[in-house]
Amino acid sequence: MEAQHQVNRKAARGWRFFKSVCGICVLLLLSLASWSAAYFFIRYLLNAFGSRPSDYVGQLFTQLVAFVTSMGIMGTIGVIFRDKRMEVFRPMIDAMKRIAKGDFTVSIPSDERVPGQFGELVESINHMAVELNQMEKMRQEFISNVSHEIQSPLTSIGGFARILQSDELSREERMHYLGIIEKESARLSKLSENLLKLTSLESDHHPFERRRYRLDKQLRSVILACEPQWNDKGIDMDVSLEDVSIEADEDLLSQVWVNLLHNSIKFTPAGGTIGVRLKRNGQQAVVFVTDTGIGIPENDVTHIFERFYKADRSRNRSTGGSGLGLAIVKRIVEMHTGSVAVQSVHGKGTTLTVRLPALPSAVAPK
Ligand code: ADP
Predict the structure, then answer these.
(1) Which of 15, 102, 324, 360 is most buried (CB neighbours < 10 A)?
(2) C-alpha dihedral over 43, 46, 51, 57, to 10 degrees?
(3) Residue 19: C-alpha distances to residues 6, 105, 215, 251 (Å)
(4) Is the CB of 351 under 6 A from ligand 1?
(5) Residue nearest atom 16 in ligand 1 by C-alpha distance
(6) Nearest to residue 260, comparing CAs of 195, 333, 201, 358?
(7) Domain HAMP: where (predicted)?
């Protein structure tokens, strides 16, 4: 493909050179013709009027008339060719106008009349339209996902608020419905918090303050902070942490561990086990968060880091997530030049592995 492009570019350059040489020849012929015409015309006029001026004056008149004639001819040719040149630009101008109006489906057909460098311009415009079209699709998909995520809690809040207006409800029923409204409001608030966080993280303007600290200590404190949740479900915590230090934004990474642990707790049935392991592997700190939960269906595994993606949607309704947690995890880990991967067996359990650059032991803080 690239070789073909090069051949085309060479041919276009050769063709341009040939046209330039022809252009110069035509200009020379035109000057010659105008000069000759002017010479004979002036001689004819002088003869007609019986005038015999000096050689100098004769030459002067001839030059003047030749100049005016050649200018006239070139001007006419220029106007004709300018219209022709504009014809080449017309599809590009039209395409740009359509793009400016938000129509990104434009595609300028590649035409051999388009000279070399303009051929590249056509390709660039087409490429830009494809990219903009893709971004527009992503924007629409994003709006539809957000609307959908907002719509379902709002519907249930509205429904239960209507039921609560009835006087015939017992105190228990009233408390039950109020509890649901509270839960759905918390879900909406979490959704907007996550959306704001993700947008901020993706904007490149999010505060990012690296400092050196012990990753094992951070993991231990996050596990302890989540104790009420895993304890409530009778989940067994299997923790094994080597002393590893990293240089990172502590708050951002804390969000990573919270999201991973919350997912493991959420998707692991009561009585299951969650393992958190930290190992040094050469220059890397490797964190494994393993659970004996519901696992992820094979087809969904590659998508779970996408925004709003939820595997097993029917099951997910009850867990109340919005599908943003792992997108946030991925973004934060990538900001630290690390990577995150998932391994899962549906029905058996899941392991999320985060790799981050580790500090050499010699410079690690105590
Ligand atoms: P959510 O807020 O829905 O948990 P996430 O982005 O954190 O959003 O996760 C996306 C999806 O990946 C979840 O809806 C779930 O289907 C799946 N998932 C993530 N972690 C686990 C896990 N530990 N076990 C099973 N499924 C998981």
Answers:
(1) 324
(2) -60
(3) 20, 35, 69, 66
(4) no
(5) 311
(6) 333
(7) 92-137
Q: How far is CA 61 from the centre of its chain?
A: 68
CA 300–ligand 1 middle distance (angstroms): 10
Domains of the chain listed by start with CATH number: 2-103 (no CATH), 211-363 (3.30.565.10)
Distance, in Å, from the CA atom of 285 to the CA atom of 358, rounded to the nearest integer, reads 5
Q: Which residue has the tokens 């993706």?
A: 202
Contacts of 103 (CB under 8 A, 6+ apart): none
Chain segment 21-57, per-residue pLDDT in tens:
888 888 888 888 888 888 888 888 888 888 777 888 8
Alpha-carbon dihedral sign for residues 83, 9, 91, 95: negative
- pLDDT mean over 340-354: 96
348-361 as b/e: b if 16+ CB within 10 A: ebbbbebbbebbee
pLDDT at 339 over 80: yes
Higher pLDDT, 23 or 283: 283
Which has the closest alpha carbon to 326: 112, 316, 239?
316
Amino acid at 90: R
Query: What element of type H or E holds 280?
Result: strand 273-281
- Whether 123 is in the pocket of ligand 1, judged by its Cβ within 6 Å, is no
What pLDDT, in 10s, does the model give residues 148-174? 889 989 999 999 999 999 888 899 999
Q: Does the beta carbon of 320 lie inside 6 Å of ligand 1?
A: no
* pLDDT at site 313: 62
3-state secondary structure of 88: helix
